[in-house]
Amino acid sequence: PAAIKARAKGLPDFAGKRVRLQGWVHRLRKQKTNFFVVLRDASGPLVQLVLTGDCIKTVDALDLTVESTIEVTGTVQKVKEGQNAPQGIEVVVDWWKIVGRAPAGDDAFEGRIQADADPSTRADLRHLELRGETATAVMRFRARLLRAFREALDEIEFTEVTPPCMVQTSVEGGSTLFSFDYYGAPAYLTQSSQLYLETVLPSLGNVYCIQESFRAEKSLTRRHLSEYTHFEAELAFIDFKDLLDHLEHVITSVVDKLLQDPVASEILKQLNPGFVPPQKPFMRLDYRDAIKYLNEHGIKKEDGSDHEVGDDIAEAAERKMTDQINRPIMLINFPKHLKSFYMKQIAGDEDYTESVDVLMPNVGEVVGGSMRISDYDELMAGYKREGIPHEPYYWFTDQRKYGTCEHGGYGLGVERLLAWFLDRYTVRECCLYPRYMGRARP
Ligand code: 4AD
Ligand code: MG
User: For ligand 1, is residue 366 a contact (CB within 6 Å)?
Assistant: First the structure.
């Protein structure tokens, strides 16, 4: 019978039928009378092929290697009870050919990569590592996560926009700016799209974007990238409590969507079987109480001393505290001097701001957000305090001139959320081709 073009996904429906498949040799076991090939056709599940008889008496058969591209025809069969095969089926091959041969003895791939391979070799081979089961699962989950964010925000009628990546203003301080020559003038890769989101509140209402942000981070940590995917939202006519409630809603709604998504929930089970969905309300911890917590629990500063009110909470201390508490924390009301020029002060407590970091176990900070200064004079004072020339920000300042309103928003690091979700050691596993100090290839 003629072969039906099929894919591994949905193949059990073709039991008893003759099909044609194309894909890559994921695993290969050569025995005297049988070759067992696990084929990866990138449709989702893997599929086991059995090559036997004349099929393995060809020149090609001698040369067949892992990661070669092949095309086969054969009959789909249910495997016997107790036999292990993806989806409980195998394809008994009657014809096949090599489409693209991979070199023999190549152990560059995940699972076959040498255990002691140094990280830089592994990073050089990222394009091959991406063919591995873990990397594929993370990337598939990531795609679902981005979709869940869009669904969650569309449901509450936020409009998605795409702000520019090439800019001439900084958002989060000068020290992490990547600069480049823009037709003879200085320009930067954006650190955050926040300022642009604020400008369209009067026309589009609540908005969000999923855009790359860039930080010239000079440290190599588990959670810092030079380029990361930034999910940011901005909300008009809200107060600080509304912002915190909204953040809780978005995070729990995205988690719910992924738990209901059969592909995502299967990946989650596989990569993070102990995952506990966060429950509303999240713990809300005032910055000053966090300093107390650190000291009461013997979590010291990097130099070994106790924390004092006014200190920045470093990554290690933040992570220790979050791991101990072991559930999402909304750390709120940071001191003004630790935060950016645009953050709104707390009325009656002017050294502190209406700001929030969401901390997750295993990662620490995944979200940074705040209410924004809505008053013109207060914003001018903010520029001055931070030593920022206000002229290039005229378009941002104008928002306070042409009909201001109370508003706030936040930015969430997609790779950090993924590292928490999927229990990955580093954010570098959570993007396609990670960029960090010293690496911008492949
Ligand atoms: O806390 P950040 O710097 O806040 C802002 O950029 C605000 N303007 C966002 C806003 O209010 N619209 O960054 C926000 C989040 C962090 O919480 C973190 O998850 C992520 O972005 N992030 C990074 N992720 C990976 N690598 C880096 N170098 C990151 N820097 C920040
Ligand atoms: Mg931050």
Answer: yes
Query: Is residue 163 one of the residues assigned to a domain?
Result: yes
- 225-276: pLDDT as tens digits: 999 999 999 999 999 999 999 999 999 999 999 999 999 999 999 999 999 9
Whether ligand 1 lies within 6 angstroms of the CB of 224 is answered as: yes
User: Residue 92's domain spans which residues?
Assistant: 4-100
List 412's β-bridge partners, or say none: 231, 367
- Collapsing DSSP to helix, strand or coil, 34 comes out as strand
> Which CATH number fits the domain that encloses residue 39?
2.40.50.140
In a domain, 390, yes or no: yes
Instruction: Give the pLDDT confidence score for residue 109 in this predicted structure.
Output: 58
- Asked if residue 172 and residue 61 are part of one domain, the reply reads no
150 shares a domain with 84: no
Assess whether 30 and 147 both reside in one domain. Answer: no
Q: Which residues pair with 52 in a beta bridge?
A: 34
Span 27-85, pLDDT tens digits: 999 888 999 999 999 999 999 999 998 888 887 888 898 899 999 999 999 999 888 89
Contact 313, 289 (CB under 8 A): no
Give me the residues paired with residue 40 across strands. 24, 46
Question: Measured between alpha carbons, how far is 212 from 85 in angstroms, rounded to an integer?
Answer: 40
Instruction: Report the CATH number at residue 402.
Output: 3.30.930.10
- What is the band of 113 on the pLDDT scale with cuts at 50, 70, 90? low
| Chosen domain end from 56, 82, 100 | 100
Tell which of 85, 100, 115 closes a domain.
100
In angstroms, the first-to-last Cα distance of the chain is: 45
CB of 229 shorter than 6 A to ligand 1: no
Q: How many domains does the chain divide into?
A: 2
Tokens of 129: 């590592």
CA angle 199, 205, 209 (to 5 degrees): 70
Give, using CA atoms, the residue closest to atom 17 of ligand 1.
367
Ligand nearest to the CA of 369: 1
Question: HSE of 266 in the Cβ direction (CA atoms, 13 Å)?
Answer: 8
What is the amino acid identity at position 10?
Answer: G
